[in-house]
Design brief:
This protein is of the alpha+beta class. 21% of the residues lie in helices and 28% in strands. The chain folds into five domains: 356 residues, Alpha-Beta Barrel (TIM Barrel); 110 residues; 57 residues, no CATH class; 240 residues, no CATH class; 147 residues, Jelly Rolls (Sandwich), CATH 2.60.120.260. The chain is built from 19 helices and 47 strands. The strands form eleven sheets. Strands 13-12-10-7-6-5-15-14 form an eight-stranded parallel beta sheet. This is Glycoside hydrolase.
Length: 1004
């Protein structure tokens, strides 16, 4: 432990230590003596950790869910300088033990953390070296009683961006001990003319520097003593965080003196952080600040004793909050929002948004009775202060409806707090939080780790839902503030339970019924855990029709072992989602690796999509090197292919929409060859709006509302504004990006604010060119003088002939009035081709052979089968292997009609094409032509490898495509294969073919 004393301070500390035995028990004996009396092994209670790029707080070695509310209890006792409690409402001034109400009410609101503001003079009221731990000890005891963690918000020599002795927003009391109020420490006047701002240790006057050294040294001693004391009394580690001062605000000081001294203030903040780190009770330290246009990354990189920082983000816009969280994640080791409105209409929506974007949040505050209801979780009724002064233990007041919704949400998400702490944004989703206020009758689907998750709030409910995929187990966790009417749906094959995790992370739950369509109900305060068996069940079902005789012994042996292992995993009631998924992947891989024992007969189509104008050698270089080859309808095997470009005219590929066909040859092991075909498509280059992925936003210092709202994708709301009472000037707004982008287009949406023409006279755009290492013009200046107040707000668009590689975009406008923007869109080319729009088949196969008379433009076919044959397998192979192919096999239920629907890769459903194969049965010999159905419709059989109902595996030449349109790693066919020798002979005789595999396909 390092103590900081001047010689005078050291002598005083020694004198105090010598007389410690005679002091009242409530006082400690100074930092040096306290160290000897309370010394214990140093313990690291909390620290910043990182998993897969996400920062979070670790407490006692475990991920901790930072989610709480701030309690300013002593304000209720004393009031504030700005608005003291009227004498007739003090009733009288409340006793200190009344503060326990804050802990009880915080727990009742569903929080696990309470932010406690602690002023220096609350632990050191009057004298050097004399500490009173009474209040601190009570805080620790109450936190333990109510199972809460404490986040200490320290009020010392700086608050709200300036040094404070009598802070007008904090209370009657000074935040410093009485013995430090001498004017020699406080040399700069505030707006009221009082010497309020302290001299700093780097003062050029040696005397002032020495006094300042002593002043700040005393604060460090107090912090060290406090945490050494906690090492003795807080043995259960309720205290987990230390905020250094409040809103240091190094980006916008209250006065000119402090603004010039921001580096010195940050150094002093780091010294306080070091006092914590050098103590016997070490916790993570942090800063908070107002506004979001601040470079906290450079501060954190420079000062090692400040662990993380975050903005006090007072906004009710969920889109703006999402941007703030993303921005904070780039600037700090934890994406943390220390303060936001607790009394607005949408704290649940704000919470869900922050969590889903990888952030954490604390609300300000639990109780507020003089600022406004916006800051009061428990509300501010007409009787004002009496609401809180009448609080009694054992009685939980009725919270406003938004707070009740938040409490229900808290009680549900707290049960997966550790999982939320480490989960990446792509593994989480919030539902009914896309708008600022949740709506009744909401239903929405979001994709999490490749899985579609649907949440329905209920017709008369505006519940918010939250879903998370546990990266460790693969299971999905579902939460909501529902009162019972809400549901989730993860599709068929889901197995659900309702329960909780124990302290060791083990799940304990009771089964929750899953409807046939996958719907799962969720009640108040419940946490639902879901695992999905459909992939593994489907993979096992798909293999039931496979015959050992159709494949080589070595490949079958591997497949049979994987199948046995998969059956054991499926039967294990304790299997995790990852185990199920791994078993399904292994089984599918083994099935894909099966080698047909028969002769290979047919090659699947291949395709490639390129950006229009791509050079010929680049096209040839990207052509697939292998293609799928099959023995009739067997599993595909990969074979090398040689493409013959010699007589191919590639000129159509110079323009988007062009298409060419390239012939190829596949050489088989027996010396024979098979023909192959590659289709090449030319499309435009993909363009993405990257505006919201900014690293920093710089503006011109105007009193803007919410800069982040200008990049949230909403072109109708109000974002950046230069409003102020007078002295309007030109505006400038600049988002910077961590990586260079090929900027191709910029769109600036102005906002008609208050019915006024709130836009600049013109607007121009510059970009920071990586090539030129300088700002260069982007497009031409747009004149807005023709847009009048009576019309709509203008939208200015900027384009260039060739994209410019840039890392920053600056929007500038000349103005003589205030300006309001709604949105800025910045588009960049990403070097990938847009999907093609081709919905044609390249081949339509029946039992592995092309249907007679196939033509890509012909969509209907009739095929006759034996009177007692099961329906053959139909396979559709799209010309563009990235297209989506969905097949409904023929059955008695659909009249023997198989349909193949091809949706182009660009997703244009209107351009989809449907092919149909209608099977008619031949007359039964000797019955006068009466048709008959299959002998056993309940026993479908399908020895092929159905796979991929959603299409063909993208731009890899069809490597993942199966001819029946199913995806090979999501097998879903059912039935068993029974090929009776006598039946086969009869069919051969009847149909006049050498051999016919008889199959039936039944949908799952």
């Amino acid at each position: 432990m390092t103590l900081h004393f001047t010689s005078q301070g050291w002598r005083k500390a020694v004198a105090i230590a010598a007389s410690a035995a005679t002091m009242v028990s409530m006082f400690a004996v100074g930092a040096s003596a306290a160290t000897a009396a309370e010394s214990a092994d140093k313990v690291v209670v909390s620290q910043v950790a990182n998993q897969d790029g996400k920062g979070y707080l670790e407490v006692d070695g475990k991920p901790f869910f930072m989610h709480g509310v701030q309690f300013f209890g002593e304000w209720q006792i004393y009031g504030s300088d700005a608005a003291p409690i009227p004498t007739d409402q003090k009733n009288p001034i409340l006793p200190q033990d009344w503060l326990e109400n804050g802990f009880e009410k915080t727990k009742a609101a569903g929080f696990d953390t309470i932010q406690i503001e602690l002023a220096w003079n609350q632990i050191q009221p009057t004298s050097e070296g004399q500490y009173d731990w009474t209040l601190l000890d009570k805080y620790v005891q109450w936190a333990k009683k109510y199972d809460l963690k404490i986040d200490v918000v320290w009020w010392g020599l700086n608050g709200c961006g300036g040094g404070i002795r009598e802070n007008t927003v904090h209370g009657y009391m000074a935040d410093i001990p009485d013995y430090l109020e001498a004017d020699k420490y406080w040399g700069f006047k505030n707006n009221g003319g009082e010497n309020e701002v302290p001299y700093l240790p780097n003062d050029s006057d040696p005397t002032r520097a020495a006094d300042a050294d002593y002043l700040f040294g005393e604060e460090r001693k107090a912090v060290t003593a406090m945490f050494n004391h906690l090492a003795k009394v807080d043995t259960t580690h309720q205290t987990i965080l230390f905020q250094i001062w409040n809103e240091l605000n190094w980006n916008g000081w209250k006065d000119g003196h402090n603004k010039t001294q921001k580096d010195e203030w940050l150094r002093l903040a780091d010294e306080l952080g070091k006092a914590v780190k050098d103590s016997d009770y070490q916790v993570a330290t942090r800063l908070n600040y107002r506004g979001n246009s601040i470079d906290s990354r450079s501060v954190l990189d420079k000062y090692e004793n400040i662990d993380f920082s975050g903005p006090d983000a007072y906004t009710t816009s969920v889109s703006s909050m999402a941007n703030i969280v993303k921005d904070t994640a780039a600037k700090s080791d934890i994406a943390y929002i220390p303060e936001t409105f607790s009394g607005k209409s949408n704290p649940t929506e704000i919470t869900a948004t922050i969590l889903a974007n990888g952030g954490f949040v604390d609300f300000w505050q639990l109780n507020e009775s003089w600022a406004s209801k916006d800051y009061a979780l428990y509300g501010v009724p007409d009787d004002g202060y009496a609401k809180y002064t009448d609080w009694k233990l054992g009685t939980i007041p009725t919270m406003p409806e938004p707070a009740q919704k938040l409490a229900r949400f808290n009680n549900s998400i707290n049960k997966m707090g550790e999982e939320i702490a480490v989960a990446l944004p792509e593994n989480m989703a919030a539902f009914n939080a896309d708008t600022d206020n949740a709506v009744k009758g909401y239903q929405g689907t979001k994709t999490i780790a490749g899985k579609d998750v649907t949440f329905s709030s209920g017709a008369d409910s505006d519940a918010v839902g939250f879903a998370l995929r546990d990266a460790d187990t693969g299971a999905f966790l579902l939460a909501s503030n529902s009162t019972g009417a809400s549901t989730f749906n993860l599709g068929a094959g889901a197995v659900a339970s309702v329960g909780s995790f124990d302290d060791d992370g083990n799940w304990t739950g009771e089964p929750r019924e899953v409807a046939a369509d996958g719907t799962i109900s969720i009640g108040e305060g419940e946490l639902i855990r879901v695992i999905d068996t459909s992939a593994l069940s489907g993979a096992l079902d798909a293999g039931k029709s496979l015959k050992e005789a159709d494949y080589t012994p070595e490949s079958w042996k591997t497949y049979a072992q994987e199948r046995k292992d998969a059956e054991q995993v499926l039967a294990d009631p304790n299997a995790t989602q990852n185990q199920l998924n791994d078993a399904a992947k292994a089984l599918s891989a083994a099935q894909d690796a099966l080698v047909p024992s028969g002769k290979l007969t047919v090659v699947d189509p291949a395709s490639l999509t390129v950006i229009a104008g791509t050079a010929g050698d680049a096209i040839q270089g990207n052509a697939p090197k292998q293609v799928n080859v099959r023995a009739k309808a067997s599993n595909p095997v990969r074979k090398d292919v040689t493409w013959n470009w010699q007589n191919v005219d590639t000129s159509p590929l110079a323009n988007a929409g062009g298409r060419v066909s390239v012939p190829g040859t596949v050489a088989l092991d027996d010396g024979t060859t098979l023909d192959a075909t590659l289709t090449v498509y030319a499309t435009a280059e993909h363009e993405t709006n990257i505006a919201g992925s900014y690293k920093n936003i710089w503006d011109d210092g105007h009193d803007s509302t919410d800069v982040g709202a200008t990049f949230d994708g909403n072109t109708t709301n109000k974002g950046y504004t230069t409003w102020k009472s007078s002295g309007y000037s030109n505006f400038s707004l600049r988002p910077d990006y961590a990586d260079a982008h090929n900027i191709s287009k910029v769109k600036v949406y102005f906002y008609k604010d208050g019915g006024r023409a709130s836009w600049s006279k013109n607007v121009s755009v510059n970009v920071w060119s990586v090539t030129d290492n300088a700002w260069v013009p982007f497009g031409t200046t747009v004149d807005l003088s023709s847009y009048t107040q009576d019309g709509d707000a203008p939208v200015a668009e900027f384009t260039v002939d060739k994209p410019i590689e840039a890392k920053g975009v600056e929007i500038h406008g000349d103005a003589d009035s205030y300006v309001s923007l709604s949105e800025v869109e910045i588009y960049a080319k990403d070097g990938t081709a847009l999907p093609a729009s081709d919905a044609s088949l390249a081949d339509l196969r029946v039992d592995g052979s092309s249907v007679e008379g196939f033509d890509a433009d012909k969509t209907g076919y009739d095929v006759t089968i034996a009177h007692d044959a099961e329906y053959p397998l139909v396979q559709g192979l799209s010309r563009d292997t990235a297209a989506k192919v969905t097949i409904d096999q023929a059955s008695e239920a659909n009249g023997g009609k198989a349909t193949v629907v091809v949706t182009p890769a660009d997703g244009n459903a209107e351009a989809a094409k449907t092919y149909a194969v209608t099977f008619a049965r031949a007359s039964k010999p000797g019955n006068g032509g009466d048709p008959t159905g299959p002998t056993d419709p309940s026993n479908p059989s399908n020895p092929s490898n159905p796979s991929n109902p959603d299409g063909n595996g993208g731009k890899n030449g069809g490597a993942d495509q199966n001819a029946d349109g199913k995806k090979r790693d999501e097998l879903s066919r059912t039935g068993s294969a029974i090929a009776m020798a006598a039946a086969a002979m009869m069919v051969a005789a009847t149909a006049g073919v050498a051999a016919l595999m008889i199959r039936r396909r039944s949908g799952r």
